[in-house]
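Weekly structure sync, notes
Attendees: PL (lead), two postdocs, one rotation student
Agenda item 3: pending single-chain targets
PL asked that the sequence for the first pending target be pasted directly into the notes so everyone works from the same version. It is reproduced below exactly as submitted, 223 residues in total.
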Amino acid sequence: RWLDVGCGNGAFTETLVARCSPSLIEGVDPAEGQIAFARTRIVAPTVRFRQGDAQSLPYPDDSFDLAVMPLVIFFLPEPARGVAEMVRVVRAGGRVAAYGWDLQGGGFPYSGMQAELRALGVDVSAPPSPEAAGATQLQALWRTAGLLDIATREIVVERRFVDFEDYWKTVLGGPSIAPALLSLTSGEIVRLKETMRGRYPPDAAGRIVYSARANAVSGRVQG
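Predicted structure, written out during the meeting:
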């Protein structure tokens, strides 16, 4: 029995179904639009989605064997409360896990673009708790929640684009980037594009390849 906290459009839920064969998996997210889409993405009697807040999960105590929070913990105004809620709804001996982009360590996929925008004096939006996904902070959150057998790991992934134009088109649609560009003139955007072209030169095949980094943590509920 799995719980996917902050399931969004169901992408990670879909991965859990494919790789873990859960007897039951519940996905919870505050955005009804995301939940509606997730329900069309995975249609199975063992998969359910519902609207809810990670800091006040709509489930009784001891409802699940495992709870996971993928790329969500830095969006919580009170990360410790979210971890405590996962502990509450997971049975004794069950596992609680999370992973998130290392925002403060430069691990976010769009950190290079964000740095250039800030250099231009643009206010780039940030989630409420960017520090929460640091490896040390994750360990502290899990320890404070009373979890045992705490383990952490770094996850490094590569992002690949066919060419620079493919990268540019993708990054411009990023939710943390698109609003910031509204304050730039067309000339500033052209200069920004050339700056990014220099930051990410193509490889021998013409592709743009760069890495991103996340931190993951897992712990066992006491009992």
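Discussion points:
- The chain has a mean pLDDT of 95.
- The CA atoms of residues 114 and 124 lie 7 Å apart.
Action: rotation student to compare against the earlier draft before next sync.
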